[in-house]
């Protein structure tokens, strides 16, 4: 599979999470935004809800931890049933140890960069990861405008992945929609988180398919595209 679409449940109706998860079955992963009101100025959900969601859907969970002290909490999200756990490098005390622990527990390890965090200092960490997330908005809220000044960072990250011959996925998150997904794909992203563009659509499952088709059309000719 060359591209993946991960609907973000931040834009879903939290009183009907199980139904909202089922509404996007067919998506590659369900993106779960965990916020603690410290690392970001918003509060969402935690381990018990992830545990319930994992039982309510067959779609694997991609948990994005926008929290302080991910070194302590990330392993608990793996135990709760997440198939992929993303921690922020700005918050992690020991990112290499944490990535190894997530992998050892059986999940994919992923690291996120806020918009002002460059990728270059972390080049040597890339082999420790299964996915790198380049935020295309300031983390904390859905429905924000896509930051197109992140496109060069996506491009540079793709170049580093190719330079090292790695298979890790490159995810973008924030303001991803039918208007912006092609630019992200052209820059080298292959995993796309979309909240309002999916859950704001009349037919969320159809929105996922359309976004996937748009991105796939771009990456089909990309030299870095490969089977995951
Ligand atoms: O992590 C975040 C926001 O911090 C995202 O996952 C948003 O939930 C994406 O929502 P849209 O920008 O697609 O509406």
From TrEMBL:
Its cofactor is a divalent metal cation; Co(2+); Zn(2+); Fe(2+). GO terms for molecular function: D-ribulose-phosphate 3-epimerase activity. The keyword Protease does not apply. CDD domains: RPE (cd00429). Its EC number is 5.1.3.1. Pfam families: Ribul_P_3_epim. The active site is at 33 (proton acceptor), 173 (proton donor). It comes from the Bacteria. A divalent metal cation binds at residues 31, 33, 64, 173. It catalyses: D-ribulose 5-phosphate = D-xylulose 5-phosphate. Catalyzes the reversible epimerization of D-ribulose 5-phosphate to D-xylulose 5-phosphate. Belongs to the ribulose-phosphate 3-epimerase family. This is Ribulose-phosphate 3-epimerase. It comes from Streptomyces xantholiticus. The lineage of its organism: Bacteria, Bacillati, Actinomycetota, Actinomycetes, Kitasatosporales. The gene is rpe.
